[in-house]
């Protein structure tokens, strides 16, 4: 099942990027997404299949449209999600800093999936440790997170979907890095141009033809 919702969808934008959130069930992928999109924090039921949301934001002087796909972490939905890796310019691998197995599974399962399914060789990856608001229950150190990110060749941040600490930064830093990669920038630019052109055509269609009255 795919559910989509948008935020400020009708505006023009310079660049369009597809971002994926992946990781075990319960690490807070949906909460990070909701926190980013709506500035609210809430406990959410596990995602069924795939959900996506759209957010416009300005980064590096450019108006960006981010389409963020939130994938189900459960094993039974795994086959559903493989096709959603296609065309992604950015992938956020999320783990829960209080549950070590979710961290271990990033290298054992999720990084392998990225290698297997990602169609963009230059795709930018970011490792995100969620739930830092529960620091007293921490099972994975920040240093371990940094080390794994280095091993996977990805960016690294810790955040809290609950307090919104570093949530927006995750997406901003990822977008900035994507914009530094010429092939990804070109893809995003082409999508942005196509959207602006399409909107212009739609406006022309809607405009009443001149001099048509009383003929």
Automatic annotation (TrEMBL):
UniProt keyword Membrane present: yes
Record's subcellular location: Cell membrane
UniProt keyword annotations, A-Z: Cell membrane, GTP-binding, Lipoprotein, Membrane, Nucleotide-binding, Prenylation, Protein transport, Transport
GO MF entry, a single one: GTPase activity
BP terms from Gene Ontology: protein transport
Record's GO cellular component terms: plasma membrane
Entry keyword annotation includes Transport: yes
Topology class, membrane: Lipid-anchor
SMART domains xrefs: ARF, RAB, RAN, RAS, RHO
Main location: membrane
Family from the record: Belongs to the small GTPase superfamily. Rab family.
Its job: Intracellular vesicle trafficking and protein transport.
Name of the protein this chain belongs to: Ras-related protein RABC2a-like
């Amino acid at each position: 099942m795919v559910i989509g919702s948008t935020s400020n969808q009708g505006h023009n934008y310079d660049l369009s990027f597809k971002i994926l959130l992946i990781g075990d069930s319960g690490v807070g992928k949906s909460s990070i997404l909701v926190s980013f999109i709506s500035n609210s924090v809430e406990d959410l039921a596990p995602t069924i299949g795939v959900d996506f949301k759209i957010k416009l934001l300005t980064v590096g002087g450019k108006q960006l449209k981010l389409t963020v796909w939130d994938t189900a972490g459960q094993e039974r939905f795994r086959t559903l999600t493989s096709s959603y890796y296609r065309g992604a310019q950015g992938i956020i691998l999320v783990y829960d800093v209080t549950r070590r197995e979710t961290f271990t599974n990033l290298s054992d399962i999720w990084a392998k999936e990225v290698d297997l399914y990602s169609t963009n060789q230059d795709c930018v990856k970011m490792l995100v440790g969620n739930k830092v608001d529960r620091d007293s229950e921490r099972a994975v150190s920040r240093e371990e997170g940094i080390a794994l990110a280095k091993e996977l060749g990805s960016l690294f941040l810790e955040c809290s979907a609950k307090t919104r600490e570093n949530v927006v930064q995750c997406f901003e830093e990822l977008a900035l890095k994507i914009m530094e990669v010429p092939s990804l920038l070109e893809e995003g630019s082409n999508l942005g141009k196509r959207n602006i052109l399409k909107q212009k055509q739609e406006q022309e269609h809607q405009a009443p033809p001149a001099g048509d009255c009383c003929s």
